[in-house]
């Protein structure tokens, strides 16, 4: 049965960070020319891969855990409307307020209005890809509200007027010297003699953020998981900044994608084992924060949960493509992808880079708006092997390639090829003509203009000196003569 949560509309244009201003090949070409970027990416992804591989190898039941995570996600997708209604009821019973946002415009308006009601002109933020997806920071700034990122990597990106390039490590494209220069240039009160020693950089960020934590009354977070059974929200992180944001302010606003819900508290056991080993290469997350509604006298006294669609219903409506909603944002697929390692995240033009971004972003926006992303892969299958919830990304890429708009000349050539291959005599004549005319180009690897545009990124096998038909005919004649 096909499940529809709401109207399967795609994410609106002109807001958020789901569409780039260049195609992937154009952006990747520029990234490939940046030697420093490639060195930064190679070092970082290799380090994460090594750590992750070691801790995964410790679990003899890792494949069973992956299967369990995949089954749980499939179950959630099959009954998402009921689970979300249950989540809303439990959050409301616990003193929270639930808001439904059909798209980025609605979500930004809801959060902005909630902050204005508090009278605050500043918010502190926990690292959240959902808020980046909808462009919340830009919306808040337009309303005269200052958002302050508290995750160290997100802070680096914000101070550098940059964009995230990795799901787990948004500033993976920056090295220590670049971070030092960003801090010197943009961080208020920083020591002008700041060095690029990591502990020194971390101390500078801690000093900058301490006053903000203690003086800001509103926080905005994302959520890694939400438990429908209890109304509990969960955020996992490595620095402790999230814990500060989730406990100190008077008002907490959480923006969460619809797909993050899980049925029961026990289901978290599976994901809290899969996520840290696949993402940071740790056995467990250093900080796992959970909260249920409002507790008088303890933590935020006003809690709002914004449930974000923004194209997710459109993804859910595709029985094949909905696998992309299984993603738990671990970044394992990025860390093993040879394409990502060479181009970085900015080439994808979306807050969701790498293999998962290549299948999720086009579905959220409509494939036509991100038509080059399904081709941003070698289809080597490493992403499928690494995914802790067994998302078959290579199959999704092929599925989306079939839905992507193709140039008129390419469609005409494919129709011509289909016509020939459906008619044996015509196909045999075409083979002879190709061999005689040598239209296969240099060493048989390309086609001459104007068809060379199609083979510039594709290799054609060289034409054999003898076709199968010729070989079969000679074999038959030789048998008769014998």
Helical amount among residues, as a percent range?
40-55%
The SS-based structural class is alpha/beta
Provide mean pLDDT, rounded.
90
Distance between the termini: 62 Å
How would you write the strand order of the largest sheet?
Answer: 1-10-7-4-2-3
The low-pLDDT segments are none
Largest sheet, in brief, is: 6 strands, parallel
CA radius of gyration is: 26 Å
Domain 4Fe-4S ferredoxin-type: 324-391
Domain LUD: 84-294
GO molecular function, one term: metal ion binding
Organism: Actinoplanes teichomyceticus
Summarize the structure.
This protein has 22 helices and 10 strands.
Description of the structure:
It contains 22 helices and ten strands. The chain is α/β, with parallel strands linked by helices and 482 residues long. The protein has two domains: 24-313, NagB/RpiA/CoA transferase-like (Rossmann fold); 408-481, no CATH class. Strands 1-10-7-4-2-3 form a six-stranded parallel sheet, with helices on both faces. Strands 8-5-6-9 form a four-stranded mixed sheet. β5 and β6 form a beta hairpin. The model has no long low-confidence stretch (mean pLDDT 90). One of its GO terms (biological process) is lactate metabolic process.
């Amino acid at each position: 049965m096909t499940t529809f949560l709401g109207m399967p509309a795609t994410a609106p244009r002109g807001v958020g960070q789901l569409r780039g201003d260049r195609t992937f090949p154009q952006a990747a070409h520029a990234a490939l020319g940046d030697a420093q970027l490639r060195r930064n990416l190679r070092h970082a992804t290799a380090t994460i891969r090594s750590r992750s591989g070691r801790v995964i190898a410790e679990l003899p039941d890792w494949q069973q855990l992956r299967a369990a995570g995949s089954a749980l996600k499939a179950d959630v997708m099959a009954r998402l409307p009921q689970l979300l209604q249950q989540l809303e009821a439990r959050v409301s019973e616990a003193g929270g307020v639930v808001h439904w946002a059909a798209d980025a415009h609605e979500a930004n308006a809801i959060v902005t209005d909630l902050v204005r009601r508090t009278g605050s002109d500043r918010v502190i933020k926990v690292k959240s890809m959902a808020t980046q997806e909808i462009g919340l920071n830009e919306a808040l700034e337009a309303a005269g509200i200052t958002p302050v990122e508290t995750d160290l990597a997100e802070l680096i990106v914000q101070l550098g007027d940059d964009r995230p390039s990795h799901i787990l490590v948004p500033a993976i494209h920056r090295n220590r010297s670049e971070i030092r220069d960003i801090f010197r240039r943009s961080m208020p009160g920083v020591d002008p003699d700041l060095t690029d020693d990591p502990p020194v950089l971390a101390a500078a960020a801690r000093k900058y953020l301490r006053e903000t934590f203690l003086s800001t009354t509103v926080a905005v977070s994302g959520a890694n998981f939400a438990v429908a059974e209890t109304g509990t929200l969960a955020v996992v992180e490595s620095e402790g900044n999230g814990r500060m944001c989730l406990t100190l302010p008077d008002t907490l606003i959480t923006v969460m994608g619809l797909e993050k819900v899980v049925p029961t508290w026990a289901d978290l056991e599976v994901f809290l084992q899969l996520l840290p080993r696949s993402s940071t290469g740790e056995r467990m997350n250093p900080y796992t924060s959970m909260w249920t509604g409002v507790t008088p006298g303890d933590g935020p006294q006003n809690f709002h949960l914004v449930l974000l669609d923004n194209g997710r219903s459109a993804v859910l409506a595709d029985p094949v493509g909905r696998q992309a909603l299984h993603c738990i944002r671990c970044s394992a697929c990025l860390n093993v992808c040879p394409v990502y390692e060479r181009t970085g995240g900015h080439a994808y033009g979306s807050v969701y880079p790498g293999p998962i971004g290549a299948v999720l972003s086009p579905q959220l926006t409509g494939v036509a708006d991100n038509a080059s992303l399904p081709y941003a892969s070698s289809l080597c299958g490493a992403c499928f092997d690494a995914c802790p919830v067994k998302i078959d990304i290579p199959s999704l890429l092929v599925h989306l390639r079939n839905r992507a708009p193709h140039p008129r000349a390419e469609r005409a050539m494919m129709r011509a090829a289909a016509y020939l291959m459906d008619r044996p005599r015509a196909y045999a004549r075409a083979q002879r003509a190709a061999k005689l005319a040598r239209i296969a180009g240099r060493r048989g690897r390309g086609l001459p203009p104007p068809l060379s545009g199609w083979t510039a990124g594709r290799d054609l096998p060289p034409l054999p000196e003898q076709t199968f038909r010729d070989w079969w005919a000679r074999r038959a004649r030789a048998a008769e003569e014998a």
